[in-house]
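Q: Hi! First time doing this. I have a protein sequence and I read that you can turn it into a structure. Is that right? Here it is:
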Amino acid sequence: MKKAFLLIIYGMLSVIFVNAQSDLTKSPTPTLRPKEETLLLKESSYSFGKIPQGRPVIHVFTVQNTGQEPLMLENVQASCGCTTPEWSRAPIAPGADATIKVGYNAYSEGHFNKTVTIFYNNGQTKALIISGEVYKLPASAAPENASVQFLKQTNQ
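A: Yes, that's right. Below is the predicted 3D structure, encoded as structure tokens:
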């Protein structure tokens, strides 16, 4: 009698287990979709070319919201203190454009390549790159001309 009872219990449990397994396989499995890109950069890099030392330069980058919801630029961060980004904190409407103004202080002579990172929509990022070559200005506007000094002395 004990064996028959255990056999019936075992049969019932196996039927329940098989049904539970088949229900799991019938239910759709959730698929992870990649986050939709909602920020379109009109250009991701800009070269200032050759610029004189001590003269700051500015370039304006344009971004577009390609999503269906308003887009928030949470932060725009430069890789160093010589680069300064400015942007609007207002939400960008779907299909609308916004600008990010990036300034560079051309203090140090030589080649530069700086990154500006855009943080938007809770953790997504995009990068802007500015580059160029800073050259040293001459000490005076024109080189000394000895002939001019000679003419000044003879006219006196």
